[in-house]
Design brief:
Radius of gyration of chain A: 29 Å
Structural class of chain B: alpha/beta
Distance between the termini of chain A: 57 Å
Strand content of chain A: 5-15%
Oligomer: heterodimer
Strand content of chain B: 5-15%
Strand order of the largest sheet of chain A: 12-11-10-13-14
Number of helices of chain B: 17
Strand order of the largest sheet of chain B: 1-12-11-10-13-14
Number of strands of chain A: 18
Helix content of chain B: 40-55%
Largest interface: A-B, 57 and 63 residues
Shape of chain B: globular
Distance between the termini of chain B: 45 Å
Structural class of chain A: alpha/beta
Number of helices of chain A: 22
Helix content of chain A: 40-55%
Radius of gyration of chain B: 22 Å
Largest sheet of chain B: 6 strands, parallel
C-alpha cells in the first residue's frame, strides 16, 4: 500500500491496447469494468487517431457478476461480426484478474473463426511497456518461421508503437537513413503492421530495434529463432547514430557473407544523409563548436525518462553538448542495473524510481540549470523555476506535433539540439530577468524607450511586432558586473512570449537605504534590467559595512570590489 | 443497475404519456465513478478525495482528467499492491494520517473502486475505523466503483454522504435548499430568480466548505438541480422527511421556467414566467437559428441526456436518439413526460449506435472522448458529452452556454467546409 498521485506508466492493459492500436486487423477485448475503457480516449484524443480504437470492453458489472453471467463470449462474437479481425487478443485488468476466470475456456466458448489469443499478464507486476513488449514478442514468436532472405538487402524495424514518444517521426528518420544506406525496409512492426507482416519478418537481413523497452526482446528472439541479426542500440545523438550505422552495415554484410548473398558495404557520402543533400548529416558538431556554446560547458543538466531516451540523451548531453550531467535516472525499475552501467561514464548520480516524488526531491537538491525529463519533471521544474524539455513517455498530447520532430538518427539529433538549446536559452533569459528585477517595470521602460526610438526613427524595422527587451546572455552579465553598462539589446520576438515573462517576474523589494542625489543619478545610468541587482549589491555592501548613506564614492567602491 | 431509491413521488403525475425508453442492456460506456473527483474537489475546497484503488485508478485520473500535479493535490490513490491482495486487512491509517498532516482537510471522502469491490474489502468499515482517528477528521465512505457507478452517479454518492453534516432545520422553517454541485455563477443566478419570486432560499448543497451547509428539516423544500441525484434526494427525504420538488431540471429556458414555477407552487405562490422564458429564447435566437432543423444523435454517458434532449427539441432540433446510461422512471418522470414520443435508449449498444450514426449521418453527434475524433474522421461533427458536465448550463443564465455547446461545433464545421481542402481530409487523400 502506498499513496499515489501520479504514475509514469499505465498498467498492463494499456500496453496491450497500444499494440492492438498500432496494428491493422488486431482487436483487443478487455475483460474489465467500464472504467478501464479510459485508455481508448488516449488513442483518439492524444494521438488524434482517425479510426475507432480497435479495443472493445466486455463490460464487467455488479449485475452480471451477481447473476453469474459472463458476457465475454458475446463480446468476442460481436467483435468478430463487426470487425472481422485476423486476431482477437483478450486481456484482463487489475480488478477482473482477481476473478481468476478461465479466459481460455470463455474464448473458446465464443466459437468464432478468428483466432483468439488470451494474453493476461499480472497487472500488479507488469506495467504498460513490459506488457506491450511482451505481447509483441509473443506475436513474433507465434507467427514467424525461418524464411529465405530477400534478394535485396532489407531490414526490419521493430518497436514503433501507438502512443510511443515521437515514434512515428522516428520511423520517418529511420527510413530516410535506410534509404541513404541503400537498405530496403522489409517490415515495420507493430505500427501499421498486419499479422501477415509478422510472418515476413524472418526474410530480412537484419532487424533494427531502437527502443530498449519495446521490441528488443522480439528482435533478439528473431535473431535466435530465424538467424536475423538484431541491431539493438538506440541511435540518439550524433556519435550513437554514427556507431549505429556502422553496426547496422556490419550486421547486414555479415549476414550477406554467412548466406553467400551479393552485397558490398557502400557507405554513402555523408551529405547524402542530410535533408538538403549538401550539408553534414547533422549540424550538431559544428553547432557545438560555435562560440556562444562555450557557456554550455558550465551548465548543469539533469536527465530522467524511459531507458532508451534517458541513457542516450545523458551520453549526448555529456559528450556532444559538453554539459555537466549532474544526475540521470529512469522509471524503468526492471532495467536498473543496465541503466546504471549505461550512464556511469557520463554522470556520477543515478536514480531509478517509479515515484515522481523521489525525482522531485533530487531535482530540488541538485538545482540543475536545465532538466530533460518527462511531463512530470516538466511540472516539477516549473515549480522550481528550472527550464525543462520533455524527452520521453509518459505520452502527452503535445508529443504528436504536425511538424517533423524525430528523436532518432541524425535528424533526431538536430531536433534534440534545437530543443535543448531553446530550453536552456529561454531559461537563461527568464533567469536574468528575474535576477535583475521587475520585468513589469522593464517592459514598461522598454516600451517607453521603444516609443522614443520610434519617434526619433521613422523607419521601424518591424512595425507590427512588439518590442521586447531580450537580455543577451553571459556577456552582458559580466560587463555589467564589471561596471560598464551596455546599451540594451533589442530584438523583435514572438509576442506570445511576453505574458509568460511578465508572469515569472518578481517585484523588486522596496529599499530603506538612503542614496545621495549623485549616487541616485549614477544608479539611473545603469540599464534598467540590471539596475535592481546593482542597487541590491550596493545596499547589501552598505549594510554589511555600516554605511547609513550611499554616496557616489560608495557606489564606485562597490563597483571596484565587484569587478 | 438503476438506483432504486424510493423518492416517493406524488402519484398525480403518474399515468401521463411518456417517452419511449428502449433498454439495450449493453453496459455503461462512461467514465467510472472515480472521475467525479475532478470536478468535486474543486467545488469543495476543504475536502480530500482518497481513492482506495490501484495503479490503473491513478493512471485513469491523470489521463481522463488531464490533471497534473502542481503543488498539493487534494486527491490521491491509496494504491493496492500485490502484497495487499493476500493480506487479511488493508491498512490505510498511515496514508490517512499523512493526508491529515499535510492537507488538514475538513473531510476525507474515501472512494472505493473495482478492485477492493471484487476483493470484498469492507471499505465502509474501513472508513468508520479511520473516521475521527486523526485530528478528528471525518472519513466518509463513497461508493464510486466502476462496476456500478458512472462519473455522475458517483457525484450523487458524494453529495449523499454530506447528509450527516447538514444541520437539522426546525419544523416550520420553510425554505428551499437547492441540491447539486453547480458552478457558483449559475447558482447565484438561480437563487436570484427564486428570490425574485419571493421564495426564501436557505442555500445549496454542496457548499465550498463543509461548515456552510444549509439546514434541512421537515419543512424544507429540496430542489434537485441535476438528473443524477436520485440517491441524495432519497436519502434526505428518508432522513429529514423534507419535501422534494418534482419538476423538470433547470436546464434550458423551458426547463428553468417550469422548475421555478413548480418551486413557487410549493410555497403557495402562483408564478408565471412565460414572459421571462420568452425573453431568454429571444436572446438565444441567433444560436437557436443555427440549431433549428438539425438532426442530432446523443450516444449517452453523462446522465444529462434527458433535459438536454428536451432543450434541444424545444430549440427545433430533431434528436434522432437520446442514449443514456440509465433512466430512473420515478426521478425522471417529469422529463420523460416532457419527452413524449422521443426515442430514448438506456444502456445503448455502442456497436449498434455506430452503425446507425453512419447510416443516418446526423448533423451533430454528442459523444464520449474516444469516439469523437473517429466520427470527425468520417466527416460527422461531434461534441464531447463531458463538456455538458463541466459547462455552466443551469438556469436562465446558463442557457446561452448550453446552446453554444450545440452551435460551436456546427458553426466551425460550416466555416471550415468553405475551404477548398476536402481532399486533405481523412479518407480522401
Amino acid at each position: 500500500m502506498r499513496m499515489s498521485y501520479w504514475e509514469y506508466q499505465g498498467t498492463a492493459h494499456t500496453g496491450v491496447a497500444r499494440i492492438a492500436c498500432s496494428m491493422e486487423g488486431v482487436h483487443a477485448v478487455m475483460y474489465s469494468p467500464v472504467g478501464d475503457t479510459y485508455i481508448n480516449s488516449m488513442f483518439s484524443m492524444m494521438e488524434r487517431e482517425q479510426r475507432f480504437p480497435p479495443v472493445t470492453t466486455s463490460v464487467l458489472n455488479g449485475q452480471t457478476m451477481g447473476m453469474g453471467i459472463n458476457k465475454l463470449p458475446d463480446t468476442i462474437r460481436q467483435v468478430q461480426a463487426d470487425h472481422n479481425p485476423d486476431l482477437i487478443v483478450v486481456c484482463c485488468t487489475c480488478s477482473s484478474i482477481l476473478l481468476q476466470e478461465d479466459l481460455g475456456a470463455l474464448g473458446r466458448a465464443a466459437n468464432v473463426p478468428t483466432e483468439v489469443l488470451v494474453y493476461a499478464p499480472n497487472p500488479y507486476r507488469v506495467q504498460e511497456d513490459e506488457a506491450g513488449d511482451g505481447l509483441l514478442t509473443l506475436l513474433v514468436s507465434r507467427y514467424t518461421q525461418p524464411l529465405p532472405p530477400t534478394t535485396r538487402p532489407s531490414v526490419n524495424i521493430i518497436g514503433p508503437t501507438s502512443l510511443g514518444f515521437h515514434n512515428r517521426q522516428d520511423l520517418v528518420s529511420l527510413k530516410r537513413m535506410l534509404e541513404t544506406l541503400g537498405l530496403d525496409v522489409n517490415v515495420v512492426v507493430p505500427l501499421g503492421a498486419r499479422l501477415d507482416d509478422f510472418k515476413k519478418l524472418p526474410q530480412a537481413w537484419a532487424t533494427i530495434a531502437p527502443y530498449r523497452e519495446m521490441g528488443y526482446d522480439a528482435a533478439k528472439l528473431l535473431e535466435e529463432k530465424c538467424g536475423v541479426p538484431a541491431v539493438t542500440s538506440t541511435p540518439i545523438g550524433v556519435m550513437a547514430t554514427r556507431e549505429w550505422v556502422k553496426e547496422l552495415l556490419g550486421a547486414v554484410s555479415k549476414f550477406a557473407q554467412a548466406h553467400d548473398l551479393d552485397y558490398n558495404v557502400r557507405e554513402p557520402a555523408l551529405a547524402a544523409f542530410s535533408l538538403d543533400q549538401t550539408s553534414a548529416p547533422s549540424g550538431v558538431p559544428w553547432f557545438n563548436y560555435t562560440a556562444d556554446m562555450q557557456s554550455f560547458s558550465s551548465k548543469r543538466v539533469f536527465v530522467f525518462g524511459d531507458f532508451s531516451h534517458a541513457t542516450t540523451l545523458t551520453r549526448m548531453m555529456a559528450s556532444e553538448v559538453d554539459v555537466q550531467v549532474v544526475g540521470a535516472g529512469t522509471y524503468n525499475l526492471k532495467l536498473a542495473d543496465e541503466f546504471k552501467a549505461a550512464v556511469a561514464p557520463y554522470t556520477t548520480k543515478t536514480i531509478v524510481t517509479a515515484e515522481f516524488e523521489e525525482v522531485q526531491k533530487l531535482i530540488q537538491e541538485l538545482q540543475p540549470d536545465v532538466v530533460l525529463g518527462t511531463q512530470m519533471e516538466r511540472h516539477t521544474s516549473a515549480a522550481f523555476d528550472i527550464p525543462c524539455t520533455t524527452i520521453s513517455n509518459p505520452i502527452h498530447i503535445e508529443d504528436f506535433p504536425l511538424g517533423y520532430q524525430p528523436f532518432l538518427g541524425y535528424d533526431g539529433s538536430n531536433y534534440i539540439m534545437d530543443r535543448v538549446y531553446a530550453t536552456a536559452k529561454l531559461g537563461l533569459e527568464k533567469h536574468l530577468i528575474e535576477m535583475f528585477g521587475d520585468a513589469g517595470l522593464g517592459i514598461k521602460e522598454a516600451e517607453e524607450e521603444g516609443a522614443q526610438r520610434r519617434a526619433t526613427n521613422p523607419r521601424p524595422t518591424m512595425p507590427d511586432a512588439p518590442d521586447i527587451i531580450v537580455v543577451k546572455p553571459t556577456a552582458t552579465l559580466e560587463l555589467v558586473t564589471a561596471g560598464q553598462p551596455k546599451p540594451t539589446e533589442r530584438m523583435n520576438v514572438d509576442a506570445g512570449a511576453m505574458p509568460q515573462r511578465a508572469a515569472i517576474a518578481t517585484v523588486a523589494a522596496p529599499t530603506s537605504a538612503a542614496w545621495t542625489d549623485e549616487a541616485q543619478k549614477a544608479l539611473k545610468q545603469i540599464p534598467f534590467f540590471v539596475r535592481p541587482k546593482v542597487q541590491k549589491r550596493v545596499e547589501d555592501y552598505a549594510r554589511e559595512h555600516g554605511f547609513a548613506l550611499i554616496t557616489l564614492d560608495l557606489v564606485y567602491e562597490v563597483k571596484e570590489k565587484a569587478g | 443497475m438503476t438506483i432504486s431509491e424510493d423518492i416517493g413521488l406524488t402519484s398525480s403525475l403518474v399515468g401521463l404519456p411518456e417517452a419511449e425508453v428502449i433498454r439495450e442492456d449493453n453496459g455503461y460506456h462512461a467514465f467510472c465513478g472515480l472521475t467525479c473527483v475532478g470536478w468535486l474537489y474543486q467545488k469543495m475546497k476543504d475536502s480530500f478525495f482518497l481513492i482506495l484503488g490501484t495503479h490503473t485508478c491513478a493512471h485513469l485520473l491523470q489521463n481522463a482528467l488531464g490533471v497534473m500535479i502542481f503543488a498539493k493535490p487534494r486527491y490521491g490513490v491509496a494504491m493496492i499492491e500485490e502484497s495487499d491482495l493476500s493480506s487479511p486487512q488493508i491498512d490505510i491509517s498511515d496514508i490517512v494520517k499523512d493526508i491529515v498532516d499535510k492537507h488538514h482537510p475538513s473531510v476525507i471522502f474515501l472512494l472505493n473502486s473495482c478492485t477492493p469491490e471484487i476483493m470484498k474489502v469492507d471499505f465502509e468499515g474501513m472508513a468508520k475505523r479511520m473516521s475521527g482517528q486523526f485530528d478528528n477528521t471525518p472519513v466518509l465512505p463513497v461508493r464510486a466503483d466502476g462496476l456500478e457507478y458512472t462519473m455522475t452517479q458517483a457525484e450523487d454518492s458524494v453529495v449523499m454522504s454530506l447528509l450527516q453534516f447538514v444541520p437539522q432545520a426546525p419544523a416550520g422553517d420553510k425554505r428551499v435548499v437547492f441540491v447539486g454541485a453547480i458552478n457558483d455563477v449559475n447558482a447565484a443566478e438561480i437563487q436570484r430568480e427564486a428570490e425574485k419570486l419571493g421564495l426564501p432560499v436557505a442555500g445549496f448543497i454542496p457548499t465550498s466548505t463543509i461548515g456552510e451547509l444549509p439546514a434541512v428539516g421537515p419543512d424544507t423544500v429540496l430542489a434537485p438541480l441535476q438528473p443524477y441525484l436520485a440517491g441524495t434526494v432519497g436519502a434526505f427525504q428518508r432522513s429529514r422527511k423534507c419535501q422534494v420538488l418534482e419538476s423538470l431540471f433547470p436546464i434550458g429556458p423551458d426547463g428553468t421556467r417550469v422548475f421555478l414555477e413548480d418551486l413557487a407552487a410549493m410555497f403557495g405562490i402562483k408564478a408565471d414566467l412565460s414572459a421571462r422564458e420568452a425573453e431568454v429564447w429571444r436572446n438565444l435566437e441567433p444560436k437557436v437559428a443555427q440549431m433549428r432543423g438539425k438532426r442530432i444523435f446523443i450516444t449517452g454517458d453523462n446522465m444529462l441526456e434527458l433535459p438536454v434532449t428536451r432543450f434541444a427539441r424545444a430549440a427545433g432540433v430533431e434528436v434522432i436518439e437520446a442514449g443514456t446510461p440509465y433512466v430512473n422512471r420515478r426521478y425522471h418522470l417529469r422529463e420523460l413526460q416532457a419527452l413524449a414520443g422521443q426515442r430514448i435508449v438506456e444502456m445503448p449498444s455502442m456497436s449498434r449506435q455506430i452503425k446507425d450514426i453512419r447510416e443516418m449521418q446526423p448533423d451533430l453527434v454528442i459523444t464520449n472522448f474516444w469516439q469523437a475524433n473517429p466520427f470527425e474522421a468520417e466527416r460527422i461533427a461531434t461534441k464531447w458529452s463531458t463538456e455538458f458536465i463541466f459547462t455552466p448550463i443551469y438556469g436562465f443564465g446558463g442557457a446561452g452556454d448550453l446552446a453554444n455547446l450545440f452551435v460551436r461545433a456546427l458553426k466551425r464545421h460550416k466555416k471550415l467546409d468553405t475551404l477548398d481542402w476536402k481532399d486533405f481530409l481523412p479518407g480522401n487523400n
